[in-house]
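Hi team,

Filling in the usual template for the complex we talked about on Friday. All components are listed, including any nucleic acid strands or ligand strings, so the model treats them as one assembly.

SUBMITTER: L.P.
PURPOSE: interface mapping
COMPONENTS: two
RESIDUES: 472
SEQUENCES:
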Amino acid sequence: MTTPDQAPARRDRPRIDLGPLRASGAGGLPIDRMDDDEAGVFALVDQVRRIRALTTGAVLDTDLEPLTERLRDIADELEAASAGPERRQAVTWSTGDYIDNCPILGRANVLAPPVEFDRLPDGTLRGETTLGLEYQGPPACVHGGVVALLFDVVLGRANFHTGQTGMTVYLDVDYRSPTPILEPIVVTGRQVRVDGRKVWAQGAIHAGDRLCATAEGLFVMPGDLLVENRRRLSGG
Amino acid sequence: MTTPDQAPARRDRPRIDLGPLRASGAGGLPIDRMDDDEAGVFALVDQVRRIRALTTGAVLDTDLEPLTERLRDIADELEAASAGPERRQAVTWSTGDYIDNCPILGRANVLAPPVEFDRLPDGTLRGETTLGLEYQGPPACVHGGVVALLFDVVLGRANFHTGQTGMTVYLDVDYRSPTPILEPIVVTGRQVRVDGRKVWAQGAIHAGDRLCATAEGLFVMPGDLLVENRRRLSGG
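RESULT (copied from the run log):
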């Protein structure tokens, strides 16, 4: 424990321009959509999501042991058929498949709800989703960290669709009222400023008309880092 | 896009006391551990996690359709045996089962890695984990939003174990260098100040000795909100 004079004080918070981040934005066009895949990974993950939704706060009136053994067999078969993580990581970056694998948007990612965003005429992204028990923090509320994750994704994609994106340098989230689980919420985000390789973006989450949370992030084009990673992934 | 004079400026960042948040802390005792469960949900989720780990960036040399059908059968059986989400939500809060279901710590939650924390003699929490492709943001890096989620959890639990916790009011995360996937990382967090119902906590993530990210959060005991939610859940 620090003494009081070393302690953090509440600093200035971001001034969020809520006008364009309203919940009721209309006229958007779908972005980042994934077609059904021939390989069938999306269809497989859809079934895993149904299982995922029932294990958190599980109240299951059945013997789980035989079901566990059947899942073990499926996992064994998939492991035997799978490439290793290095090869798979290269795949996620080699063919524009990033979105498929995103932890919030990705139809191939078991972690993802997945959320779908539309892009409004002013560049604001807007997505509706309803999150289940597996995203719970406080009772009946979306976990504060999941709120932050939603923001990092919507701000990043809002930047991407302007043509100038980057890695997160900071992300400041303000929790203004509880974000509910098991009810529709609206996630919005937009880029608000560009200065060389730096871009700023802001976002909001609403439940109906109620403002639940806001966020501001600073993102910087990583330059060397991405070049370095891509060379490494390609074995260069 | 706002004009420059309306634009956000880079505000002061939290002053993080990194001394107690070093990666190499020793002498900790395990906290928040979950015993193997009789009902077998943890064992079932372990198998779902094996499947989860292979669908992101999937390179699977097998016909997925029959595997998808077998997963569908399991999901059908679990759905038929499951209580509804309201009943299950009440369960997550009725018997101290919160940790089992946390999206980072919870052995019953398919989203969770899960991470395990030790508590050091000075109250700092310290956990090591290695995150797979499903947690990826930029190439070879943990997603910035997942970094924020790790922080919200470690700060919240650090508060809990001092005896004074609360809901997140703000969470400010600074990304200082890439947080790697597929390599061990160390997550630390501790409470740094209490002022009535307000508590502040700070955290860090390291990869080896390299500092990847820091965070500060303000948390407030919600009082009425929790009372309200508990009454609603109990049907009162």
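MY TAKE: The longest helix of chain B spans residues 64-81. Confidence is low (pLDDT under 50) at residues 1-5 of chain B.

Thanks, L.
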